[in-house]
Specification:
The protein has helices at about 1-30, 35-55, 60-75, 90-105, 105-120, 120-140, 145-170, 175-200, 205-210, 225-245, 250-270, 270-285, 290-315, 325-345, 355-370, 370-375, 390-395, 400-415, 420-440, 450-470, and strands spanning about 85, 90. Helix 3 (about 60-75) packs parallel to helix 8 and helix 10 (about 225-245) runs parallel beside helix 12 (about 270-285). The two termini are about 25 Å apart. The protein has a two-stranded antiparallel ribbon. A hairpin with a 2-residue loop joins strand 1 and strand 2 (about 90). The chain has 20 helices and 2 strands. The longest helix has 28 residues, at about 1-30.
């Protein structure tokens, strides 16, 4: 046994050495025309991916946990690996998830078959709804102006997260929940720290927050994408602090995570994130244990709701009216425009096709606005790249049937969470917070190759299924 362990460790060192060398060569080949930061992120992402793939054949659970932690590196280095290949999109995320899915495909389908036979009605409906969602999303691509791009983007933004969810349900059980949650908390913390570097690169001060806000992405394409991920994960931090017994090291990790994520939330200046976070705190506190605190919060909220909402809607700026904010007007105009697109294309316009159709329908959408409202506002000087509302986004790109299936899927998971609410509290609050933020500010399944938020929300749906009935060990 001792000799065997020494052999494995020696082989692991060889793997580490080879992956380091390959990653170094890949980074060197991309030095020209890229910043040192981008090249370092490419090296890190490649090194992590190679080791995660190797580890997936040795210890699948550890490889998945490391993959979750690595998401900030993959998303930051995504511009180097975004390749359309027939009906697939090659990225760091798809390479890992596809590899693990194929390697475990027999166990995954055995697990699905078992659950369809032995699971309750909610489990049966869950798998049927997921299957129908994939079918109708692909069907919407037939109306896309960029058919093959929409097909490959669908693989990246819809199929890949669903495959990851099935991997989670098959490979993990209730005893693994804490490790999974801690992994995504750590992942978000890393993104927060990256954002702090962006905004405080000239020193920590309020002046630098205001000066560098335009550059703030937290590693994502824009700050709103990160804000959506942050408010989806924050309920887990609150749950583990408020309701779980934790060791000293865990307490340090959780409280430091709360401080890091709260600071990041504040400097996003994202209205939907601020409001969603407040709702998340309120929902997570609703229990017998914090009954008195909830009552106090309701009273304080009733008193401060008007100034608080005014502060949130104006992002703390001295704007006299919501209708004077160009961003707000663009989103109001988007509602009318999106409804018009959906009316003409009820089966959707295809993945990633929103910008093209919005350009065509924007004028008609503006004219659909009530005349009294049009006189009060000024049309936004820019075209939207997405609907800033998950319901409208799905309706436009995937069609009304896909939207109905999506709503039924969310209702299904909410019903499951109430079967044992104390075990599903953080998952329920995470899902609700995601839905609120996605409706107020917007989310996409795939925004210019960024699918981190989609991976996390499908992870949440998968964890609900694990809590519903446990999973079959692979």
């Amino acid at each position: 046994m001792k000799y065997y362990l020494q052999k494995i460790l020696h082989y692991d060192k060889k793997v580490l050495g080879c992956s380091f060398l390959i990653s170094f060569i890949v980074a060197i080949l991309n030095v020209n025309g890229n910043s040192k930061k981008d090249v370092f992120m490419l090296f890190s992402a490649t090194f992590l991916l190679l080791n995660e793939i190797y580890l997936s054949f040795k210890d699948g659970k550890k490889s998945v946990l490391l993959f979750l932690i690595s998401l900030p590196f993959f998303v930051t280095a995504r511009k180097f690996v975004q390749i359309d290949f027939f009906i697939f999109k090659i990225s760091f995320e798809t390479i890992f998830i596809t590899t693990v899915f194929i390697y475990n495909i027999k166990n995954i389908f055995t697990n699905i078959k078992y659950k369809l036979k032995t699971g309750d009605k909610n489990t049966f409906k869950f798998y049927i709804l997921v299957s129908l969602f994939i079918i109708f999303v692909y069907n919407s691509n037939s109306y896309s102006v960029y058919f093959w791009k929409s097909i490959s983007d669908t693989y990246l933004g819809v199929v890949t997260p669903i495959m990851f969810m099935l991997i989670i349900i098959t490979m993990f059980n209730k005893n693994d929940m804490r490790n999974i949650i801690y992994s995504i908390i750590l992942s978000v913390n890393l993104s927060c720290l990256y954002g702090f570097v962006q905004i405080f690169k000239d020193g920590i001060s309020l002046h630098n927050i205001n000066k560098n806000r335009a550059l703030l992405t937290f590693g994502y394409h824009n700050v709103n994408i990160f804000a959506g991920i942050l408010v989806t994960v924050l309920p887990f931090v609150l749950e583990y602090i408020l309701y779980n017994k934790n060791s000293k090291s865990e307490k340090k990790f959780l409280y430091s995570s709360l401080c890091i994520q709260t600071a990041a939330l504040l400097i996003t200046f994202t209205r939907g994130a601020w409001l969603s976070a407040l709702i998340a705190v309120f929902l997570i506190l609703i229990s017998k244990k914090y009954k008195k605190l909830v009552i106090v919060m309701v009273v304080i909220g009733a008193i401060l709701i008007k100034p608080a909402m005014s502060f949130i809607l104006t992002r703390g700026n001295n704007v006299s009216s919501f209708l004077e904010n160009e961003s707000s007007i663009a989103r109001i105009q988007s509602i009318y425009t999106d409804v018009r697109i959906i009316k003409d294309y009820p089966f959707g316009v295809g993945m990633s096709s929103f910008p093209e159709y919005y350009k065509e329908f924007a004028t008609r959408g503006y004219l659909m606005m009530p005349e009294d409202l049009r006189w009060k506002v000024k049309a936004a000087h820019y075209m939207l790249e997405h609907a800033h509302n998950i319901i409208l986004q799905i309706g436009v790109e995937f069609g009304l049937i896909s939207l109905l299936i999506y709503i039924l899927l969310m209702v299904n998971r909410i019903k499951v969470s109430f079967k044992d609410y104390s075990k599903n509290r953080s998952l329920f609050v995470s899902l609700i917070t995601y839905l609120i933020f996605s409706t107020l500010t917007g989310n996409e399944f795939n925004h210019k190759g960024v699918i981190t938020g989609t991976i996390i929300i499908f992870l949440v749906l998968g964890l609900m299924e694990i809590n519903n009935e446990g999973s079959v060990e692979a």
